[in-house]
Amino acid sequence: MRPTEGAAAALILRDVEVAGRGGLDVRIEGGRVAAIGPRLAGRGAELDGRGGALIPGLIDHHIHILATAARADSVALETARGLADVAARIGAAAARRPAGAWIRAVGYHEGAEPLLDAMALDRMAPRHPLRVQHRSGSLWILNSRALGAVLRGEPAPACVERGDDGRPTGRIWRGDAWLGERLGRTPPPLAPLGARLAAYGVTGLTDTSANTDAEAAAILAAAHANGDLPQRLMLMSGGDLEPPPGVRLGPVKVLLDEARLPDLDALVARIAEARDWGRGVAMHCATATELAFALAAFEAAGARPGDRIEHGSVIAPEAVPQIARLGLTVVTQPGFVAERGDRYLAEVPVGDHDNLYRLASLKRAGVRLAASSDAPYGEPDPWTAMRAAVSRRTASGAAVGEGETLAPAAALSLYLGGFARPGGRRRRVAVGARADLCLLSVPRAEALRMLDTELVAATLVDGRVVFERAAGRAVAA
Ligand SMILES: [Zn+2]
Predict the structure, then answer these.
(1) Distance 377 CA to ligand 1 centre (A)
(2) Is the CATH code 3.40.50.200 the one for domain 191-413?
(3) How far is the CA of 455 from the centre of ligand 1 (A)?
(4) How far, in Å, from the CA of 34 to the mean position of ligand 1?
(5) Ligand 1 centre and the CA of 406: distance in Å?
(6) Where are the domains of the chain?
(7) Do 368 and 329 form a contact (C-beta atoms < 8 A)?
(8) What is the pTM of this model?
């Protein structure tokens, strides 16, 4: 369903539950909720809600869109068992693509076998240019077609490994910058990701990539405009950015790395620069040290509403009131407890276990709290993350910070804040509100008991249906 120029046609949602009241109709006009009431009159398209709850569309407040789409379009080798399995996975990807189309594989590890080279890859994909990234991130291996495409017969830099015969082996060590330049930017297909997120009821995305530049922003804006990525977009960036039409500009993203922390004065100056650009600041804080450093910088520079702590993976008890006093929003990933919790419990010092991915203690302290996937590093389904926020259980069933458990309604609310104030006032289904909506197949009370993505019956962005689950529910013309 591709958006056409101008506002969407009028649509009436029949028999939905709004804010706990059942049996209502909702009329949508010009991309907004125009009327809510029983048995509304109106002509045009209708969608039967069958008594399900109509809630605001969910916003994933921290995602890396292009990386998630690229991952989905790549051959995953993380779990490959030996060379034969690697070859089978690459062969399957080749069979799905026309000859000559690029294949990208990631997560390769040689184990006890010899490291792949161009000749080995040629046997796996003789008709496609193929590049395989080593799990370490420091090595790409290219087959002959791919090598030919990047070398183009020109002198190669030192990152291109050569064999005893002087010919390239296909291995490129720490050559990401050069390789990126030679390959150019080929954006991954975004429509599959847009459709997948729409099926989760996601109507808005905050892309938090620090490396977003004008070109990446233009790619995302174009995908939104043509309907491939129907979700409304807010983009962060590390530097100054002129937002393309149709997308909003978010805070400046600052990546802190505990091993290479900048000078505190330099960080304070970056905050000041963001203010000059009229933007908030979002600091990546995955460790207690990174958080302490970020808080020191916000203390020195002054914090503003809209400033954010990303992840808040480890928050010491004394940092909680400080975050509240500074008025910072914490944008966390409840799903990591389920996805990575067992590893955290094994690797994080026991004394920090109760400080992992806090939820309830932050809310109690008055901190604005919002949730996200951090895809591709986390699973993009918000409903599994909500269940993790309620259960606080790892995959093996171990508890992580049981005191941090949220009630189901609070878990859902983590996705209902606005772009500018994630974790702030919840968006509501009300007359005049934007028709970015999620229709569930059951009333809200039942949905909260289940918190399951299968409950999403339809998703609307700007009044347009961008996802509809049941085939029998086609929008009447
Ligand atoms: Zn991230």
Answers:
(1) 7
(2) no
(3) 27
(4) 37
(5) 23
(6) 11-56+431-473, 74-183, 191-413
(7) yes
(8) 0.89
